[in-house]
Structures are given as structure tokens and as C-alpha cells.
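Researcher: Please translate sequence to C-alpha cells.
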Amino acid sequence: MNRKLVLGVAVTLSLLLGILFQAAIPSSAFQSPPPPPGPANDNFANATVITTLPFDDTVDSATATVEPGEPQNCVYSNNTIWYSFTPAQDMLLHVDMAGGQYESNLTIYWAYGPGIGGLNYVSCSAWNPAIDFQAQAGVTYYFQAGSFNWPGTLQIHVRQWPPPDNDNFAGAKAISSLPFSDYIYNTIAATTEAGELPPSCAGSIYRTVWYAYTPTTSGSLTISADSYYNKVVAVYTGSNLGSLKQIGCRSYWGSGRLTFSGEATKTYFIQVGSYNPGESGWLNFSLDVAPPPQANFWFSPGDPTTFEAVQFYDNAWDPAEVGIKSVAWDLGDGSTSTDWNPTHQYARDGDYTVKFTVTTFDGRTASSTQTVTVRTHDVAIVKLTAPNAASVGQTRAIVVEVKNVRYPERVNVQLYKSVPGGEEWVAATIQNIPVRSGNRTTSVNLGYTFGAGDAAMGKVTFRATAWIADARDALPADNQAISSPTKVSK
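Model: Translation complete:
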């Protein structure tokens, strides 16, 4: 038989047997096995609905996926699962992933529209994350938990922050000693109990906390309640909500103080709350003995003389925010004043200790002192002598007579001459001028060589000034003089 014919028949039979064998085996035997199913809450649409708190869950994220359009924040998560929660009331929520894989990521959203595209970002955290946030009643929040680098076990825990221990009047926190301070992480869980009325300085009060203090001595006490929302702070006496008698109240935003007069052995209840229903946040509360006022003052000029009045300025303030009621000045020379900003002229040079005392509306007082140094420095030019005539090239003496009757002074004497359109500086010297009684003066000699320009003008007039180098001159008006003209010839 032909060899080629035998080979062709063999190939044909092999192909027919392969077709028959393939037809006898199901097609599924040649396909890859399907992947194991992911967690039930792998996708946003199947988010696990949290109905009660506290809530805890543990999930293996090995088969979790990232669906199309899924948002990513903080770090990219390769495997994500979803939870949803709709609080029935405003609350502070704590969500964390403690106990699970360290490389985990948590993102919180709130739903403003349907589907995954209707999410609005709230906050995110990575590496064993934890997030605290204020949740509003009726708003649906979604928690996206994931892992990065490699999948692993994820744990999620959701808790509501409980109300503060001193939320109600009966649970008022007892203050045993001063100074006292207390920090509340967030007042969102605080309530206003039945029968709790707003104080007189506010038409409403919400999310209140209470403190109680019984002073051992009488005196002014100051409450500081700081936070970034509108607060109401009030102080009462009484034994229950129905018998409270208000003795102080203040409403303000941010930081502020309320000061009241406390009697020894009497118990005072302090109420702190928010003015508006939607406001809450951290609260830093403190109670202490009211600090003394600050009796600050200043005066002008700082180097007064006997020729001028000193203006004193009140710069007092009260850190307890009650206010300054009155002031009293002892001006150091036997004079006194109760004006807020008095003026006073001292008759003689000297060092005067001025005492300033202030009194607050609740009777606290404080004083401060400053020394007012009065020194009257004064020199005067009583005469400037120049020659009646001179010629070009001659050097002649220009004599400045300086009078000084108070303190030895270093005096700067400047000499100017007249030129067309003004004057020109000629010479200067600094000399020690002693004290001379009566009409005696000290002569300052300044030499001047006359030039061709002076001759061209035909005459020259000199002006001298004298200024104390180390102090302020009390009467500067007599510190200059002008000579009679000197006739200059060639």
C-alpha cells in the first residue's frame, strides 16, 4: 500500500478519536475553578447595617475586593468591606479597628444621595485606625474598612460616647479643693434633664453638666469655662432642681469667666451648658479663688521737669472680669487723687514714689508703685558775639555765652553762618558746662576764617545753637542766638 496513504489514514483516525473523546468530557472540566466568595459586606450595596450599639465584627479580608467607582482616602485599600449606621439621636461616635491587622484603613462617609456616588467624605485614618466624630440624628453613615499591602483579619468596633458623669444635677461633680480643673472630651452626649430651667441670662440651655463646691472660707470665686461654642454658665444655691436660687449667670462664646462671692460652708451648684441646641464640643472647666486685679499704670513724659505737668494713665484690669470700681493715687509728694487719669506738676526735682491702688466691684484690691524721676535740665545761650568787621583770610573768635544754673551738663554747640538763600554749617564742639550761679556764663570759643564768599556778600551773620547731650532741655526756646552782622572786606 502507498506509504503516504497509510500516514493520512492514521492522522484522520487520530483526529476523529480526539473529537469523540472531547465530546465525552464536560466542558467545565477544562475551566479554572471560580474564586471563593467574598465577605457578605464586600460591596457598598451589601453594607452590614448596624442596628444597635455597641457593635463589634471580625472579617477575613482575603477575598474582599474593590468595586468600580469605590472611593479611596488616606491610603489605597486593596480589600474593603462596608458598614452603615443611622443614629436615632445626635451622638458622639467612636469607631476603631483595634485587634485586627495593623495595616488597616478606615474611612467614614455620610450619604447625601443614593448609591456609592452619593457619599460625602467625613474622616479617615490608617494603621490600626480610630476615629471620633459627631453623628447627627437621621443621617446614614458608611464605614469603609480595608487593608493595604496584603489582606488579613479586620476588626471593627463602634461605640457611642456616654453622657458625662456629671450630666445631671444629682450627679454634680464634687469639688473638694481649689484650684480645680476638669476636661470633658465632648459634651454632645450631655442632656438637659426634666425640670432643668435656663438661667436668667439665656432664654435656653442645652447639654448641661453640673459641679458642686462648698468653700471653707468666704471670698470671691472665679469660674472659667472655655470651649469653641456659645456657653451658658450659672451658679445656684439650693438642694434640688426645684429649689435652686440663682446668684450669678453669664452667656458668652469662646473663653470667659464668671465670678461670684461665696460664703463659707454654703454649697454652690454650677451649671454649664450650650446656648444653642446644635452646639457641643470639648469643655475645659476650672474653679479657683478670684485673682487680684492688676493695678498697672504709666505716665508721660517719662523724664518730667518742674516746668510741665505729668499725665498719669490708668491701665488696670481685672482678670476675674468683674471690673474696676474705683482708683486711688498717691503721687509721692503728699498729693493724692481719685481721678482715673490725673495730671500733676511737681514743684521740685526729686524721685517720687507713686502708688496706684484699684478696687473691684466685689471688693478685691491691688496696688503697684513706680518711681517718677523729676530732673529739670536747662541751658541757655544768653549772648553770641562776632566781630564788627573782618577781612578775607582773617581767623576771628566767635564766642557763645552759655548759662547753666542746675546740673553740670555736656553741651553740643553748633555754629552756622548766613549764605544766599539760607545758612551753612560752620563748626561744632561738645563742652562740659559747669553750674554757675547768678548771671555768670561759660564762654565757648569757635574760631572762623572769613573767605572770599563772605566778602562777595559784604557781610555775614552767625547763628549758634546749644543742646544738652545727655538729657532733655526743659526750655529749648532759649537754646539759640543770632549775632549782629559782621562786615567783610577783601
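Researcher: Any highlights?
Model: Residues 3-24 form the longest helix (22 residues).
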